[in-house]
Design goal:
Layout: E1 17-22, H1 23-29, E2 31-36, E3 40-47, E4 50-55, E5 69-73, E6 76-80, E7 87-89, E8 94-100, E9 110-117, E10 121-127, E11 130-134, H2 150-158
Antiparallel strand pairs: 1-11, 2-3, 3-4, 4-10, 5-6, 6-7, 7-8, 8-9, 10-11
Bound molecules: FE2/S2 (inorganic) cluster.
FE2/S2 (inorganic) cluster binds next to loops.
Length: about 160
Amino acid sequence: SSSSLSPPSSSTPPLSTHFIGRKEDIVKAGRVTKLVNGCRDVLVLHHDGQLYAMDMRCYHAGGALEHGDIEEFNGRLCIVCPWHKYKITLAEGEGLYQAVDNPTVKPLRTYWRSKGVKQRIHKVTEVNGDVYVTLNDLSEAIESDNYQTEKYRSVFLKG
Ligand code: FES
């Protein structure tokens, strides 16, 4: 009989999720960085009522995304890496850049293009004011993975 089993509680997050902090604290801080599951440095940020999570170091050269500005480009919210101003969409982790329409036509006309997903984005869930991250376990390599090794972790921790 299954009568002794208690029904799943809606306040219990799935096992694969990792506690980040209280939502009110994250909202107040705006950004929080955390080593998740002992293996991944993640940035969780709050912008315009939404929570986002992504690898903490920029896919280009490991820049500290927690210090990046949030701006909209081509109607898409991006974090702008403080190191070389690469633009990364918050929701998908796509690298955006401005391409020139036709270099022989002046004035130059530019338009936004995507390099595809470059930054690993993680899933954020909220249960009763607690914020959790589920690591994105897509096995396909994403460029920001390069900056998730022990080497970068210790380098950056030493400052
Ligand atoms: Fe982020 Fe270069 S490290 S733009």
